[in-house]
Amino acid sequence: MSTISSQAPESGQGAPDAPAVVVIGAGPAGLTAAYQLVKSGVRPSVFEADDVVGGISRTVERGGWRFDIGGHRFFTKAGPVEALWHEILPDEDFLMRPRMSRIHYRGKLFDYPLKAGNALSGLGLVEAARCVGSYMWAQIKPPKDQTKFEGWVAARFGFRLYSIFFKTYTEKVWGMPANEIEADWAAQRIKNLSLFKAVANALAPKRNQKQITSLIEQFQYPKYGPGMMWERCRDLVADGGGSVVMNTWVKTVHRAEGGAVAVTVKDAAGERTVPADHVVSSMPISALVRALDPPAPAEVLAAADDLRYRDFLTVALVVPESAGFPDNWIYIHTPGVRVGRIQNFGSWSPYLVKEGRTCLGLEYFVSEGDDLWEAADDVLIKQGAQELEALGLVSSDAVEEGYVVRMPKAYPVYDEYYRGNVEVIREWLAREVPNVHPVGRNGMHRYNNQDHSMMTAMLTAENIATGTTHDVWSVNVEEEYHEEGSERQASGTSGTGRDAPILPRRRVEQAQAQTDQKV
Known about the structure:
The protein is 37% helix and 22% strand. By secondary structure, the chain is an alpha/beta fold. Strand 10 and strand 11 form a beta hairpin. It is globular, with a radius of gyration of 23 Å.
């Protein structure tokens, strides 16, 4: 990986022969790419369909309250990303926060990441013995299929601990059975943790915890939330001669022989076409494919249509400060409620809340058009208050006010076919429109953290500005990048430890067959 420039841009300065670059989306990936480009003398045009920058990393303001969408810890092993954070925001705008999260299960709170003694003692002697026995059996006879989330986790914790501490929450997140979710997601989120390592970590808690990303004990956090970083980054792009245009939808990416040549954007005033030598896209890769004109072949369109997303909504409830809890968030594994996770924004930063009160963010994992997504705000606020009380966390009478924020396409779904579908799209884009550069979580249909999304954008900007040939798709797949730094070689299998088959859906194969027949 090359050294990436961290020099701040000079206002209005741009190279006369710089390429025309269009950036789609003003989230972490899009704005990072734009900022890196202006530092290289390129003046990009950024188009954002929403009226707020930051994408899922925005900070929402309602009624004088500020709250995260999903919660964003600023922790990374990528030095260039760390440096860029502090280049965009001064050191005094960062807080160092303690990391604390727990699991709520049937009226009890358990540490997360799991600590063997805490988990087993909280479950009681009999259930603890069963869990230990289940783990030992999984070591003797591991699950045959570890390509799916269920088998991957059960192999590392045993089926009983898996069913208690992983299954319920994960199925809430994805809205599908855990035995249909690819193990790639577990490999990226749970990383290198297992029951054995949880025990070892408990015996030597201060020695190796930063070796496993899941075990970090503290993290940086912008005092007014992550949105302040992207608001500042937007301003730096403008200062450097770029533009960030809000409420503007990229309708069409025009292509000719050799690549993209322009984009058509639409806003309240109508449509206009913007020339482009390069297009950096953080829009969902499925939407990018459908935006291309002339259209992509049938098999590529079919692959795009097969990609799935999970949507997200937050119900933010104002309660007395005394009703809060020390956790950044609590994972809800208790059956009978639909909330998946609850944040206390006051535990993230005292600057997000008001004196004497705090704000709790109840997170629901949904699909656009389902009953929760379509429910009226007042109905969701009432349901959130009732579920807080049902969990024994806060009396519903203590809720003073509430707000609802909906976030579409928050999570790219890792189903059985996603890797094959992405590969079909990726190969075709690289061949037919090599100057279109997917970046970020939705842009690459990869469950990237914010730092991974930024790194894909930084490398892409360097490729455009200096002609380097970084493989952006290698970010967040090498085990050395996001794990303990083992000697194993990067395999490009998203850390699952196996070469998973690439399986596009049946209708993708049918579309390919139809194309072959025409040829």
